[in-house]
UniProtKB/TrEMBL annotation:
Keywords: Signal. This is DUF1134 domain-containing protein. Pfam families: EipA. Residues 1-24 form the signal peptide. It comes from Enterovirga aerilata.
Amino acid sequence: MRRNLTPGVILAICLTLLASSAFARGPRADSPDTFSANELLDSGHQFFGSVSRGLALAIREAVRRWGEPDGYILGQEGSGAFFGGVRYGEGTLYKRHGQRHRVFWQGPTLGFDVGGEGARTMMLVYNLNSLPELYKRFAEIDGSAYLVAGVGLTAARADDTVIVPIRTGVGLRLGVNVGYLKFTDAPTWNPF
């Protein structure tokens, strides 16, 4: 069994385990300013068309690990890579009490990663006290394996704020990369 694992696969497994432990945080106490797993599933159902088993499992796993989020972003993104890559997206941040804000994100990646994807994205947002706290760079380690379609979950962190992107993508992509997401209030082609 061990002879069949290539160095790239071993590296991908190690980086994924490292990322999940680096961003691990216990569940937060429920609050009137957070969204429950059922509310997230309802929004996901409306946005994605139907809640697939993979999406439901990803949302439940994120809520189990990080608790109920302060907000969430629904949007779409596109990305491509040939060892180095870029990601661009846009969506709407939903906060409690009807607050909505249009946001954009972009960022470079570097790693053993080849292919491209288009994805509908739900990002769970934790510990966001004010909107300006979102407009910075969030470090991210991502492992992808898309062959036509798939669901992926990662975590990105800057200071105490954690963003958990859940992507349902279409495309052909395989690999692992490191990079960051940079959020802005206006679209830009500069991923840095």
